[in-house]
Design brief:
With 302 residues, this protein is of the alpha/beta class. It has 2 domains: 89 residues, no CATH class; 206 residues, Dihydrofolate Reductase, subunit A. It is 25% helix and 27% strand. The chain has 8 helices and 16 strands. The strands form 3 sheets. Strands 11-10-9-8-12-6-13-16-15 form a 9-stranded mixed β-sheet, with helices on both faces. The longest helix is centred in the first third of the chain and has 14 residues. It is globular. The two termini are 25 Å apart.
Length: 302
């Protein structure tokens, strides 16, 4: 959280960040280089050969220049969370928020049973992980159907941190009250015309006309970036996630793959992202797997 705050307020050009057990150094090396626990090198700086040293790509992908000795759990956590701490430094190059889509699915690719029941496909470790992401991003995005069907709180309950802004896409006004009751964090609604706005001092309405029956994800992300939102979690549902994927507005995709088989159920967002030929399938620049409780987490960078 300190990194996130400092990165957002940074005015100087950044070459490196050095982190010790009790302090963060921006550009300047600590007096005792042996105290460095990990570091990020941007346009220069001196890596410590004894500790993890890394750089971050524009899509949030982390490359370890020096993995360091041991510290596997540290490297895992840096991969998972550091991009969102330093999002303001990344988004200056791309001009839109850094975006992640995270969801839980079964081994056979379903996010819910045929009746729509999905609690809980993900385990408790995944729940805590999702709330860490919420605490680090500036906003969480959902569509109207997810708001109507799931009544999500979209707040931070399982970790320390500040609730993100809640972004709802769509013209229907149903269930917005559930968000108002769950947190004091801002609510932003993207609607297609003025007739779908209503008076409420806690809700900001932004009007973007539809294209092909949908409010464009590219326009949504541009608008959020102009308001100072540097990172977002696209939390659902399938239609919203698929649209942002097709419009190349997602940088990181995370699958929590639970050791469960349903046989039939509601497919993940890729059900709306069908292709005819293998070569047209969604591919990742890089990816990795790691255990999360009794399940596996896949993280891919688009």
């Amino acid at each position: 959280m300190e990194l996130k705050h400092r990165a957002a307020s940074l005015s100087e050009d950044l070459e490196a960040i050095y982190v010790t057990s009790d302090r963060i150094f921006w550009n300047s090396l600590p007096v005792n280089i042996k105290d460095i626990e990990w570091s990020v090198i941007f346009n220069g700086g001196t890596p410590n050969p004894e500790t993890p040293c890394l750089k971050i790509e524009d899509n949030g992908m982390i490359e370890f220049l020096n993995p360091g000795s041991g510290c596997e759990n540290l490297r895992k956590n840096l991969r998972l969370y550091l991009p969102f701490c330093l999002a303001p430094l990344i988004t200056k190059k791309v001009g839109r928020p850094l975006a992640i889509s995270h969801f839980a699915q079964t081994l056979d690719g379903f996010t819910a049973t045929v009746s729509g029941h999905s609690k809980w496909i993900g385990n408790n470790e995944n729940l805590v992980h999702a709330h860490r992401i919420r605490a680090l991003v500036d906003a969480v995005i959902i569509g109207n159907n997810t708001l109507r069907d799931d009544h999500p709180k979209l707040n931070v309950r399982h970790v320390e941190g500040r609730d993100p802004a809640r972004v709802v896409i769509g013209d229907n006004n149903h269930s917005v009250q559930s968000l108002l009751d769950s947190s004091n964090a801002p609510i932003i609604r993207f609607v297609s015309n003025e007739s779908h706005c209503f008076e409420n001092e806690n809700i900001q309405h932004i009007i973007i006309p539809k294209e092909n029956g949908m409010i464009p994800g590219i326009s949504i992300m541009k608008s959020l970036y102009e308001q100072g939102i540097q990172s977002v979690l696209v939390e659902g549902g399938a239609s919203t996630t698929s649209r942002f994927i097709k419009e190349k507005q997602i940088d990181i995709v995370q699958y929590h793959i639970a050791p469960i088989l349903l046989g039939k159920g509601i497919p993940n967002f890729l059900n709306d992202h069908s292709v005819t030929y293998i070569e047209d399938g969604l591919r990742f620049h890089s990816f990795h797997f790691h255990p999360i409780g009794d399940a596996i987490m896949f993280t891919g960078y688009l």
